[in-house]
Amino acid sequence: MTTQEQITRLTEARNTLRNKAINLKLANIEPSSKMDAIATAFDGISNNGGVKAEVKEGDTYIIPEGYHNGSGSVSGVSGGGNYTLQDKTVTPTKSAQSVTPDDGSYGLSSVTVNPIPEAYQDVTSVTAGAGDVLATKTVVDATGKVVAGTMPNNGAVNAKLDATTKNYTVPKGYHDGTGSVSISTEEKSATPTKASQSVTPTAGKVLSKVTVAAIPAAYQDVTGVTATADKVLDGSVFVDSDGEAVEGTMANKGAVSATIDGLTVSSYTIPAGYHNGLGKVSLTNDIEAALAAI
Questions:
Q1: Compositional bias of type Polar residues: which residue ranges (predicted)?
Q2: Looking at the structure, do residues 84 and 114 belong to the same domain, yes or no?
């Protein structure tokens, strides 16, 4: 049998059961009811088996709701009120019970209802307290006492974080799952300058990215500079390897000139500093004359 044939067969069976349930006026069954609802309705029919009852003159016997197997009977009793009555005892259950006399008894003289079984009244395992239950709701605590809940219902809590509000304390209580904590982001850009810069977000936002542009062409890479102040003329300014503007300290000697006679002055110490190339060191005239006479 194919899947479609199986589906068709089950659909027809469901429709038959549903129509029967509607005809029997079972509770909560409608033309659109599904199979599980139909099954629940049929399962709720009480099985009364073969009900037998005796009715004295002038009385009425109400036939109990549910299934009857066809072997029961209701008959009249003669005797002018001499009827057999029965005492019965029942124990409470989770489902309602109909207490009726057994066959051979006309009615019940008394019904003794036992205490609720321990299984239905033991609440010592309950651990929920007022703070665990939503306000306006009630529970039974471990002592059997009805307790009103005190848990706040916060519903949908929403909050926004930014550079000023950096954290959010979630309030104690119930949240319905639709609230959120969020941030509004923005991107900014900056170009390097000689002075330091602070890149900050707009009020109410958080920076998600800062794009730093390349160093402008006007600012050269000076990491390879080796000159120091003593290597640059006094009065001239240069940029050192740290990018700082520094004034030179080298003395400007210009054109330094000096003479030696070879006798009393035989050497000349050239002073430290810059020389313009026009200075000279020469012999005195008397030495030149003496050398020329030799």
A1: 179-197
A2: yes
> Taking the CA of residue 285 as centre, how many other CA atoms within 13 Å lie in the half-sphere pointing to its CB?
0
Per-residue pLDDT of the chain (294 residues; tens, 9 = 90+): 788 888 888 899 999 999 998 998 888 889 899 999 999 988 888 898 888 887 776 678 888 888 888 888 887 766 555 667 899 999 988 788 999 998 878 788 899 999 888 777 778 889 999 999 999 899 988 888 889 999 999 999 999 998 888 999 999 999 999 999 999 999 999 999 888 999 999 998 999 999 999 988 878 788 889 999 999 999 999 999 888 899 999 999 999 999 888 778 888 999 999 999 999 988 887 776 666 666
| For helices 3-23 and 35-43, angle between their N-to-C axes, nearest 10 degrees | 40
Domain assignment present for residue 76? The answer is yes
CA 70 to chain CA centroid, nearest Å: 63
Cα angle 218, 219, 222 (rounded to 5 degrees) comes to 135
CA-angle at 24, arms to 98 and 42, nearest 5°: 60
Q: How many structural domains compose the chain?
A: 3
- Residue 67: name the closest of 53, 38, 51, 46 by CA: 46
pTM (2 d.p.): 0.37
Contacts of 125 (CB under 8 A, 6+ apart): 142
| 287 within domain boundaries | yes
Residue 268 included in any domain: yes
Q: Closest Cα partner for 45 from 17, 68, 61?
A: 68
Full domain range(s) for residue 27: 3-43
Residue that finishes a domain, picked among 101, 119, 137? 119
How far is 35 from 109, CA to CA, in rounded Å?
A: 43
Tokens of 187: 């991107």
Quote the distance between the C-alpha of residue 116 and its chain's center: 45
Phi, psi of 232 (to 5 degrees): -120, 140
